[in-house]
Specification:
- The chain is mostly helical.
- The chain has one domain.
- The protein has helices at residues 2-17, 23-30, 36-39, 46-54, 60-88, 107-136, 152-176, 180-185, 206-222, 227-245, 260-269, 280-285, 312-323, 330-341, and strands at 143-144, 225-226, 293-294, 305-306.
- The structure holds zinc ion (2 copies).
- One zinc ion binds next to helix 11.
- One zinc ion binds next to loops.
């Protein structure tokens, strides 16, 4: 029971981390009782007003401010809550809850996480607020508001369609950022955290963040999305992103969703397990972690190397890595490697 309440708290806070929650405002302003002009009133010089009006972004400063207030409340709310509940209260018993129980992020790296996590949050909130102001002011999009506007079949079908398409695109985007040029220049920042915590969820390079957000926003302009479906899906994606980075061992709630160790392994072993909400993509494309392969930052194949392709020294380091993990099949993973080393 306690676990479900904890999940609910994280879920609610998780929804607020993305600026897209302001689509809720769009819904209310579409409601006949709401007054769009009120929402769109801008306090500023006539020049400012005409600039925003020219771009059909009336009310943008207010929306951006709210997106940041809620975004940071969520970011520090969840990060702080997980820190307190696990990292502080249960610090003495890491083997009960931690993915890498004997390793802790250094205070410097944690500050680095929070700094970059915050910078990216401000940037994504800016674009979310622009988009939301555009939608609120009646700008063109494929967001719709009446449940049956595109029929009930589409209302139910769009949940898996948007979720799957978006996740698959994000999978390939992630693999692109593991190509040496993109990795070294941009994605390496996110991989500074071999032992991630919840604060690293948005600690990504601004260039990479533009790619990510474009993919997340794409459905708004390409697929008829009911606002509630879109908001819920994005809320869920953020919610799981936070859990995936928390460093805390959690089972998945859904059969398609990998456990949190899946993405924690991505941080520990670098070029492996690229999916987020489905491990299916990694299964199909052969990028899921295998016990007979070795993965590390200098191995760029995205599918690791076979045990025969690496030196004995690397194998020993690999064994130490495996021994530092906390998972049900740990003995299987380490015994397999020991038998090869013997
Ligand atoms: Zn990565
Ligand atoms: Zn990550």
């Amino acid at each position: 029971m306690k676990r479900y309440i904890a999940s609910l708290v994280v879920f609610i806070l998780g929804c607020t981390i993305s600026g897209e929650w302001v689509f809720l405002l769009a819904y209310w302003t579409k409601n006949p009782v709401a007054n769009i002009n009120d929402m769109g009133s801008v306090h500023g010089s006539p020049d400012e007003r005409s600039f925003l009006e020219r771009w059909n972004l009336q009310g943008f400063p207010k929306i951006w401010l709210m997106a940041n207030l809620f975004g940071f409340f969520g970011y520090f709310g969840i990060g702080g809550w997980l820190q307190w509940y696990f990292y502080f209260r249960r610090r003495e018993t890491p083997s009960e809850w931690k993915c890498q129980p004997n390793r802790w992020i250094t205070p410097e790296l944690e500050r680095h996480e929070i700094k970059w996590g915050s910078i990216t949050l401000v940037i994504t909130n800016f674009f979310s607020a622009v988009l939301s102001a555009h939608v609120i002011n009646g700008g063109w999009s494929m967001i719709y508001y009446q449940l049956d506007e595109y029929g009930w079949t589409w209302f139910f079908l769009q949940w898996p369609v948007i979720f799957l398409l978006q996740d698959y695109a994000i999978y390939w985007n992630h693999r692109l950022f593991h190509v040496p040029f993109f990795y070294k220049n941009f994605h390496k920042l996110h991989h500074s955290y071999k032992v991630p915590t919840a604060y690293s969820v948005t600690a990504i390079h601004p260039v990479e963040c533009v790619f990510f957000q474009t993919l997340y926003v794409l459905p708004v302009f390409t697929i008829p999305c009911h606002w509630a479906v879109y908001c819920t899906l994005l809320g869920y994606i953020y919610y799981h992103g936070i859990l995936d980075h928390s460093g805390i061992r959690m089972k998945s709630m859904w059969p398609w969703q990998p456990e949190t160790t899946f993405h924690d392994n991505h941080h520990q072993y670098f070029h492996v397990n690229f999916g987020f909400n489905f491990y299916l993509w990694d299964v199909i494309h052969g990028t899921m972690r295998r016990k007979d392969r070795v993965y590390r930052e200098e191995i760029w194949s995205q599918k690791g190397l076979s045990l025969a392709e690496v030196s004995e020294e690397v194998l020993k380091e690999e064994l130490a890595e495996r021994e530092s993990e906390n998972r049900a099949d740990k003995a299987e993973l380490t015994d397999f490697l020991k038998s090869k080393l013997a």
